[in-house]
């Protein structure tokens, strides 16, 4: 069995809390040994075992790979003109999703596959080693199933989002569309999906519809996630906590009751994570979520890209970390934790987002001595190497 030693590590972020290392579990003067895609040893560099191969981190920081728990990669078409119009003053309403639906339905499987792989590779080069991918631009039984089938080719974290918007052919008949989602569409999607998600928002799906879809999805064996409280206050966050969702995403407009519900959930065995998506606020020029309020209340917070062609066309987790620090007043340590261990919690994964013996050897090596540089040097390609399942992804 081939082994790989990573040494000359300037700072190792483990996300295993230690007395001196804070929540990031920072360690120095250590090396890390990989075998069969797993971390098998972390210890003082001077005691590092012999290995078949070696990667010299050059004094750079080593972190768990980013866990991007919210992305919409299965689509066709381009909405750059919509972005330009928005930057010129037009408001964001979510209605542009239907533009992408038309292009996606018209695209071939290979076109969709190329886009998914291109964006997945783009994210990997920026340190993302686990990526959730949603359907939601097909909105027919066949197009939702094929979206998930194509997503499942590159990730285990696939999410059925048939309830993204009510498609044009069901205009004025949302109950009929929800019936389709809960029936034949769910049946066709389930073989390729781990999760079910609903866009619970004014203009999309209300609480009754969301509850119906999530309940039937859960009965089919899918885990629950929710787009909630993005564009205004609403019932989504509390519904997600009530139903035991792994994550409620966006959380931009929260009441005290919403925060209390999330904080109460944080003390349970299976907390509902608040996943913040600052790329969406950046790209729609909207107010950012109040991350400090959530963190100070004890809520488990994750960061993700929301990568999609309309409201957040970025695959960059380092960009989201920088936004979280600059615009949402998270500390660099909080933001890095939220983008790695937080994302893993949002996907209820214990084998990623953390580096300790037994976890996946999913990690990144920075051209910088500490994790602080991810926010301190925004927009700079600091990621020198990425290991996914122990396999180097970048040519050095
Ligand atoms: Zn989304």
Automatic annotation (TrEMBL):
| SUPFAM superfamilies associated with the record | Composite domain of metallo-dependent hydrolases, Metallo-dependent hydrolases
Q: Where, by residue number, does N-formimidoyl-L-glutamate bind?
A: 137, 308, 310
Q: Which UniProt keywords apply?
A: Cytoplasm, Histidine metabolism, Hydrolase, Iron, Metal-binding, Zinc
Q: Which reaction does it catalyse?
A: 4-imidazolone-5-propanoate + H2O = N-formimidoyl-L-glutamate
Which cofactors are named for this entry? Zn(2+); Fe(3+)
> Where is the protein found, in the record's own terms?
Cytoplasm
Its annotated pathway reads: Amino-acid degradation; L-histidine degradation into L-glutamate; N-formimidoyl-L-glutamate from L-histidine: step 3/3
Q: Where is the Amidohydrolase-related domain?
A: 248-371
UniProt GO MF annotations = imidazolonepropionase activity
Which amino acids does the record list as binding 4-imidazolone-5-propanoate?
Answer: 79, 137, 164, 230, 311
Q: Which PANTHER family match?
A: IMIDAZOLONEPROPIONASE, IMIDAZOLONEPROPIONASE-RELATED
What family does the entry list? Belongs to the metallo-dependent hydrolases superfamily. HutI family.
Q: What is this protein called?
A: Imidazolonepropionase
Organism of derivation = Micromonospora humida
